[in-house]
Amino acid sequence: xxxxxxxxxxxxxxxxxxxxxxxxxxxxxxxxxxxxxxxxxxxxxxxxxxxxxxxxxxxxxxxxxxxxxxxxxxxxxxxxxxxxxxxxxxxxxxxxxxxxx
Length: 101
Fold this sequence. Notes:
By secondary structure, the protein is of the alpha+beta class. The protein has helices at 77-85, 88-100, and strands spanning 14-17, 26-34, 38-44, 48-58, 64-74.
């Protein structure tokens, strides 16, 4: 954690992660948070940025659906190389890991 008032996800919360197979250490900033409805993150490192928007919908039967939207932008040649190497299978594995987190 870099910045938090409550110790959990909240507006303007900032934290770092390190996933060596995905590139350099990253800074995540919560840029929008509506509890039980929506969260948006900006995830940045030296080679790319990713903006995540996760919208939750109550299905009315005790389950919830999540709609993930993301925008990935390479910041340099290394970022372009990284994006060109990500296969559909690797991308799906990454999303499954993020869902668990």
